Amino acid sequence: MTSSTLVVVLLQFAFAFSFNLGDNANSFEATYGCLQYNTNHGYDYAHPYYSTAKFKNLLITSKNVTIMRMGVLARNDGHIRLSPTEYPYDNTEMNEIVLSGWANTAIEIRRYTRKDHKTRINNQVLKHIGSAGLLSEFRPMMFTMEYDRLGNVKLTKDGDVFPFVEFKDPKISFNYVGFCNWDVPAIYFFDCPVEVDRRVCDRLVFT
C-alpha cells in the first residue's frame, strides 16, 4: 500500500467515524437537569399546572426579560398552556401555544376562556404559521421561551439565533405553565438549566 493510498484510507475512516458519532449522538443529554412530565391522557384531561415562581432555572436579564428553557418529545402536537392560576377552571382567561399541530405542520398561538378542564370559550387565534417537521418522537426539541412585561414572547431553538415563532399578548400570564397532548403521547421537559455562552451578551443557549 502506497503512502497516498494509506492517507485516503485514513481520511475515509476518519470521516466515517465522525459521521457515525453524529448519527449516534445522545440528543437526550440536552435534557440534563430538567423536570419531566409524560402524558398520554389527551387534550381534555385535567393536566397539572406548575408554578413558575418555584422554578430554579429562570433567568432574568438586565432588561427584565425572563427566559425559561424547556423541550418537547412528540411526533406532533406539543401543547403548552400559560395560566394566571393553578386551577384555571372558573372562567379563566389564558393562553395556549400549539407546537406542530395538524400532523406536525403548523404552530398556533391561542387565547381563550377556560370554564373547566374540558370546556373553553371565546377562542382567539393570535397567530398561525407553518412549522413542517419541527417536532420528533425520537429527538427532544429544546428551546427557550423569552417574555417581557409588555407581553412580547419569543421561542428560540437551542443553538439558533432567531426565534422560530414570536408574538405579543399584553394580557398573557406566565404564573403557571401546563402541558397536554392531542392524539399521540408526549414528553415535556421544563425548568431546564439555561446555559449561557460567555462569548456573547444575548444569553443564547448552546448544547
Write a brief caption for the model:
InterPro entries: Methyltransf_FA (IPR022041). Strand 9 and strand 10 form a beta hairpin. The protein has helices at residues 3-23, 101-104; strands at 35-39, 49-51, 59-60, 66-73, 78-83, 92-100, 106-114, 120-130, 141-147, 152-157, 165-168, 176-180, 186-192.
Which value, in Å, is the CA radius of gyration?
A: 20 Å
Report how far apart the termini are.
42 Å
Tell me which oligomeric state these chains represent.
single chain
CATH architecture: Sandwich
> Which structural class fits the helix and strand makeup?
mainly beta
Beta content: 35-45%
If helices are DSSP runs of H or I spanning 4 or more residues, what is the number of helices? 2
The total tally of domains equals: 1
Number of strand segments: 13
- The general outline is globular
In terms of per-residue confidence, which ranges show pLDDT below 50 for 5 or more consecutive residues? 4-20, 196-207
Overall CATH class: Mainly Beta
**Main sheet properties:** 7 strands, antiparallel
Domain Farnesoic acid O-methyl transferase: 43-193
InterPro entries: Methyltransf_FA
Pfam family, one: Methyltransf_FA
Signal peptide: 1-16
